[in-house]
Amino acid sequence: MSLSVDSVDIIKKIKSCKTLQEVEVIRLEYLGKKGFIPSEMKLLGKLPIDQKKIKGQELNKLKNIIEDTVNDQKILIENKDLEKKLKHESVDITLPHNEEVTGKIHPISQTIFSIIEIFGNLNYTVEAGPDIESDFNNFSALNIPLHHPAREMQDTFYVNNNGQDNVLRTHTSPVQVRTMLKSKPPIKIIVPGRTYRSDSDSTHTPMFHQVEGLVVNKDATMADLKSTLILFLKEFFEIDNLKYRFRPSYFPFTEPSAEMDVAYTKKNNVLKIGEGDDWLEILGCGMVNPKVLENCNIDSTAYQGFAFGMGIERLSMLKYGITDMRGLFDLNVKWLDHYGFSPLDLKTRSEI
Ligand code: DAH
């Protein structure tokens, strides 16, 4: 070799490094801007053509060898460091569990876990969006233009951010818009999350939770929507003979729109879901309005979809027999101790 250095020596030097810093020093020595290889490359121009070609090839070969060895050595050191760290951070999982010092899972979290589990089994994926939304995502893209009465219906909290019109999202529906803008159909998502409206009494809190669903593909139908929701509620409430009904309704972002009610009875102040002659509204749904698809750059002549949205507090209260919604957010440890769930009781579906 006509080079003044020996690749075997360099490889040895790199392989004897114990820290990333040591590797970096050698890398700079040979590959850095003023290092050996770039300096030699600069001198190539002065050589006669035949030598230039040979030396150029040798330099390139050496450069590749050094790069590969440096990378390999870095990975080796990183792995060793990680191994060392893991050894120090080991947790003794045989420690006995002490019920008294363990927190409880909040019923809202528990409800969200079961919703994700049921829809997960139907191949839905989970999407999320920010609590502070643009006016476009929360309203306009969903076919709720300025001065539309639906805006007043929702008691919006406005957030003025440097003259930009932002809102605390009044529903999880803006994540429909976000998802359609960033990904191509087929889309099959649910969106559990926090939502906000200026409203507070025994059945309303200014912050609450919803779960949104959106399916967009070439052949989604109202029948698919209905069967999905029926299956979900039967699984969620664990009732095979759930009595339900779909009522025509109106939402600007779906056409046609419907609301789904489930039957209930009340005996000795205890609510029983699934049978009886009284009805409780559970969710809103419909076929995605073609205008919404177009607002999100999806060709409404090729694609169609369905959507649904429901309140997580109501689902929670009905399933777990909670009567006053404000209890959910009082931060009362005794309340949580009574209504909460032990983290060790959380079962995945495959275990049930
Ligand atoms: N966003 C509606 C609300 O907060 C709920 C809703 C109704 C969502 C129908 C949907 C839907 O996706 O299709 O009242």
Task: Please name the CATH architecture of the largest domain.
Answer: 2-Layer Sandwich
Tell me the number of strands.
Answer: 11
Identify low-pLDDT runs.
Answer: none
Looking at the structure, the CATH topology of the largest domain is: BirA Bifunctional Protein, domain 2
Distinct ligands, ions and cofactors found in the model: 3,4-dihydroxyphenylalanine
- Class by alpha and beta content: alpha+beta
* General shape: elongated
Taken in chain order, the helices and strands follow as HHHHHEEHHEEHEEHEEEEHEHH
Largest sheet, described in full? 8 strands, mixed
Full CATH superfamily name of the largest domain: Bira Bifunctional Protein, Domain 2
**Portion of residues within helices:** 25-40%
Number of helices, counting only DSSP H or I runs of 4 residues or more: 12
Radius of gyration: 31 Å
